[in-house]
From TrEMBL:
Protein's recorded name: Sigma-70 family RNA polymerase sigma factor
Residues annotated as signal peptide: none
Molecular functions per Gene Ontology: DNA binding; sigma factor activity
Species the sequence originates in: Telmatocola sphagniphila
SUPFAM superfamilies named in the record: Sigma2 domain of RNA polymerase sigma factors, Sigma3 and sigma4 domains of RNA polymerase sigma factors
BP GO annotations: DNA-templated transcription initiation
Superkingdom as given in the UniProt entry: Bacteria
All copies of domain RNA polymerase sigma-70 region, residue ranges: 8-70
Keywords: DNA-binding, Sigma factor, Transcription, Transcription regulation
Transmembrane segments: none
Gene3D superfamilies linked to this entry: 1.10.1740.10, Winged helix-like DNA-binding domain superfamily/Winged helix DNA-binding domain
Keyword Transcription tagged: yes
Residue ranges constituting the RNA polymerase sigma factor 70 region 4 type domain according to the UniProt record: 110-155
Protein family (similarity comment): Belongs to the sigma-70 factor family. ECF subfamily.
Amino acid sequence: MTDWTAIIREHGALVWRCAYRVLGNQADSEDACQKTFLAAVEFEAKENIRNWPSTLSVLATRQALMLLRSRIRVRQRTQTLPVNLPKDPSLFEPGQQAQATELADHLRIALAEIDSVQAEVFCRVCLEGLTNQQAAAELGLTTSHVGVLLHRARAILKEKLLSFAPQKEMLP
């Protein structure tokens, strides 16, 4: 029998961090965590889980992306992604901070619009810091397939983010 209390105690912070990196909002991340553990209960009933951190990270990313998509459909806008600011705030100009926050908002919207597998690969590699090999192992894909999906996701996200950029007026 699975000791869910121990699993939640041991891996709860990991699940929350995965969800928060995608969602950037505490309340939404808590919702995603609850959904992740519910999905884990269902998944564990069907299959024996050998690597809890990996399984929970994948489930958390999927739940966060699903929640992000639903929130964006409803609100058409998301909360800001926290920016890793320098320890001395005087080193970070307000204009730069505003641009980084706006870019993070646009990235969230773009992630919600692209293919779910591409979004998941992008999140696992670019936001979670996994290697292509680690992401492939966790997602049940080949390393080359992860590379292709990541390349496609980056290209689509770049195009979408460029479309959000304000058009500079042509000077005479």
